[in-house]
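Late entry, evening session. Most of the bench is empty. Finally got around to the prediction I had been postponing all week. Sequence below, unchanged from the version circulated by S.P.
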Amino acid sequence: MANYDFKSIEKKWQDHWNSNQLYRVLEDRSKPKYYVLDMFPYPSGAGLHVGHPLGYIASDIVSRYKRSNGFNVLHPMGFDAFGLPAEQYAIQTGQHPAKTTQQNISRYKEQLNRIGFCYDWGREVQTCDPNYYKWTQWIFAQLFESWYNLKSDKAEPIDQLISIFEIEGNVNILHHGEQTEHFTSEDWLEFSEQSKAERLQAYRLAFQKKTTVNWCEELGTVLANEEVKDGLSERGGYPVIQKEMTQWYLRITAYADRLLSGLNELSWSDSLKEMQRNWIGKSRGAEIDFETDQAESLKVYTTRPDTIFGATFMVISAEHPLLDRLTKTEYEHKVRAYSQEVSNKGERERMMNKEVSGEFTGSFAINPFNGSKIPIYVAEYVLMGYGTGAIMAVPAHDSRDHAFAKKYDLDIVQVIDHGQEHNVQESSFDSKEGRLINSDFINGLAVNQAIKAVIQLAEEKGFGQGSTQYKLRDAGFSRQRYWGEPFPITHKNGVARLEDELPVTLPDVESYEPTGTGESPLAAVEDWVNTPRGRRETDTMPGWAGSSWYFLRYMDPQNTEAFADPEKLKYWNQVDLYIGGTEHATGHLLYSRFWTKFLFDRGYLNFDEPFAQLVNQGMIQGESMFLDYDGRSFHIPVDRANKDASIEKAAFQHLINEDTRFSGIDIDELDWNNGKIQLRTQTEKMSKSKFNVVNPDDICDEYGADTLRLYEMFLGPLQDSKPWSTKGIDGTHRFLKKLWALFYSSEGELIMTDEPASTQAQKTVHQCIKKITEDIERFSFNTCISQFMICVNELSAEKTHSKQVLEPLVILLAPFAPHIAEELYSLFGHDRSVVDAPWPKFDERLLVEDRKSYPISINGKTRTQIELSLSLSKEQIEEAVLQDQIVQKWMEGRAPKKVIVVPGRIVNIVV
């Protein structure tokens, strides 16, 4: 083959892999297993752009590398196919989301296969497939039928709890859930079925309750906290308000401590683990009861009980149940208007808002330690979802309290002394270290000592106790949309019951439009909703339901009797390497860990963490191109521009004719130079709206999939974000051509030989083996590409065509550029694929340097370099250098006054 014909080579080997099911994986206990997983994509109609494959290429390299090293590698792929985007598209176009989702999946698979990934497509999962979501519903049913026993510190069957109720009531039960009144066994047996069901809601891990939620009218659904940003939906940017609704929840809070402690065992980045710790938000402090002048007791939670003598006002949340009773008549109008305004904001928006606002209720609380009266305010910076929804404000030592006190002219009393001058009237002193002042019986104590003393006295006096709180909230699990997993629940006489037959499949609906009433479109399908067992639940599960356990289904995707066979679960065990973006740090990853720990508790898994090692790939950003004209900047589609960031006059005329954005531009006023104009470039997120999306199909058409794979890895470290630019892709493609030239002459003649390679050529390749092996292990793929280029350049300079060094080089390259590697490996006469070729081992002896290129300095200036054996003595080095013709030329016949030889480093000659 004369030329490197990447198009025919890549099609040939992709067909071969598919027809021979080369990547099909079975359990093989004779080999160690290795499970490599990508965060599976949501299949949008736009298809892949060049940023999407970055993590997939990295996981593919590791998968192929591990297989060559004797591992049985599981490397599957599937699609996160339920969710809002498909439904929104259905509403706009009138097409069923199942149809458009399948079209999008087909498009994704076509693109993924073209890039040459070693996925076992026989294990594909789609979360919208009833054969898959049957088991999502089954897991929900197990959560519904479980409670969290604090004595055993794990989830247990609800039937066992009911048996305890029947024998001894709930007096001795320690559970994670809502507080309930105590009842005896006799009481329990006399309760009606509805009363029992209502009480069990306080224990179940999947439960319903009426609560205030993030409601998006435009999307027609409830959103989780992490789906709301600055009061707007993360998807679409629509307004979000607070609305009271009955919702399904999962009691993830029961696992808060285990989710925290489990992080210590994971090989994840410190930053990602810290994000999860902050989201869970564990804090230790005290709950203290403050009596008020309205005959109400107000409980506050504080992490700093030592500062109680510096509390000069109190703040309660706008949703606090005591707000109305604590608000005096003359303040009602302002307080109600303010609380209504605040309640329509999301938690995140309220936390991020730096503006100070609040209203006085007219009431006062009594400090239980000294009897002082403290005014009570309502303010947006206090949330009902954290602690008790009420705080004691200590403005001298908290910046937000300080800002509030300054605005409303409230007292600021310093109670912590850190030994340096600090004017707390000007700014707060937020340190957690120092000694107490102005604080009665704890004066002089260090902060930690004072905290203990205050808690101890509060407990002795009966108006407080030590407490641990979390920011983490139970996970909202209801969506009022069509395109999601139906709940396997029917309601009858106020009792929620599980369906007997799974899956409960989605019915066809005439309209996907949100109802606007808080019900999903399913509510209108009367013959589906109304069953002999009762009325079906019409909410659907959120998008993250199916993604919380998909990694388990890959282990046994065709099983109809269980979500996976126990023996296969034991064999594949945890995911060894998970690659994906950081955007899922507090959503998908947290929920997956929660579901895994729950299934472990119930005996379905023998591991309680899903992902042993996690690597976050960076983002490939787009290179946007702009035409600046008349004080405005116009995005120019990158597919119309040249590689040098210019655009031809003819191409721009077409844009003017096609795109109304450019209709006001006079083409003849532009500064044309030889028929084209230079554009301004800027790195931005790659998206259609910025006209900077690059389709990987276009790169594969022009350069081939192997070039695309190598170039994406060559752009920079995997974990870093980097801009996409095609300026360097030609060099990557030339590298493959140069590799090809080690096997074939320009006339197409095979020039590879069986002759032994030179020692230097062997050294070059064995250095490459060592470097590539080490760099793959630490996910440093960009340095691997550099090493390949160095190696091929050196072999080309040596004019090396020996099979002895070319074969291990091809095996090394196979994980990165599998198509050309398969083609070249076939020349060696093996009856196996390169993917099954044993990984090369480097020879330490060939890595030992035995020669040194000495810089030769004459009278302080380097004049030449001489390569000599490292085994030579000082005298032998000096003799060889002085005999060199170039050295003799610079010495001009003069005898050396001094020769300084440092073996292995330099030679200095003074004449």
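Two things to note before I forget:
The radius of gyration is 35 Å.
The longest strand covers residues 206-216.
Will write this up properly tomorrow.
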